[in-house]
Amino acid sequence: MSNHPVETVNASSDKFKVGISVLAVIAGVVGFYLLSDKSTAVRALALVAGLLVAIGFFWTSTQGKDFINFAKEAVRETKKVVWPTRKDAMQITAVVFGFVLVMAIFLWSADKFLEFLLYDLILGWKK
Q1: Cα separations (Å) of 62 from 56, 65, 123?
Q2: DSSP state, 126?
Q3: Domain edges within the chain
Q4: What is the pLDDT of residue 72?
Q5: Rounded mean pLDDT, 95-112
Q6: How far apart are CA 88 and CA 106, in angstroms?
Q7: Coil, strand or helix: which one is 119?
Q8: Under a CB-based contact definition with an 8 Å cutoff, are residues 17 and 60 in contact?
Q9: In the chain, which end has fewer C-beta atoms inside a 10 angstrom radius, N or C?
Q10: What is the pLDDT of residues 20-71, one digit of tens each?
Q11: Reduced 3-state DSSP string for 22-82
């Protein structure tokens, strides 16, 4: 028997929550611009209120819970990363800079050789 992943259909309440979240963000942004004659604090409060309502609704939806689980797993995986020591990082950086310098010299010399070949030898144009 093969194990095929089973896709579940999102409940209409989850779609409703995500829709309300999107509308709350839009309402916050629209409120920010419609209140242009008010103080900056009132405008910012309208924007933050819209974002908080959106986060609240999205947090309770299935997609929001999946996102939270994804973020927790990402943090857990980041803690497993072994970062190079300062000495290793400096050596790697020096190798990269050295390679870039060698490639720059190679490309410059190839360009000058092709320029000489085409303009001086083939076309006969003298500078």
Answers
A1: 13, 5, 69
A2: -
A3: 1-81, 83-127
A4: 94
A5: 98
A6: 27
A7: helix
A8: yes
A9: N
A10: 899 999 999 999 999 989 899 999 999 999 999 998 988 888 888 898 999 9
A11: HHHHHHHHHHHHHCCCCCHHHHHHHHHHHHHHHHHHHHCCHHHHHHHHHHHHHHHHHHCCC
Token reading at 116: 């000489």
- Which two structure tokens, joined as six digits, stand for 53? 């309502």
Residue type, 27: A
Cα gap 53→92, rounded to integer Å: 47
Contact 57, 28 (CB under 8 A): no
CA angle 119/121/122 to nearest 5° reads 75
Q: Which two tokens stand for residue 115?
A: 């320029």
Say how many C-beta atoms besides its own lie within 10 A of residue 100's C-beta.
10
CB atoms within 10 A of CB 54: 21
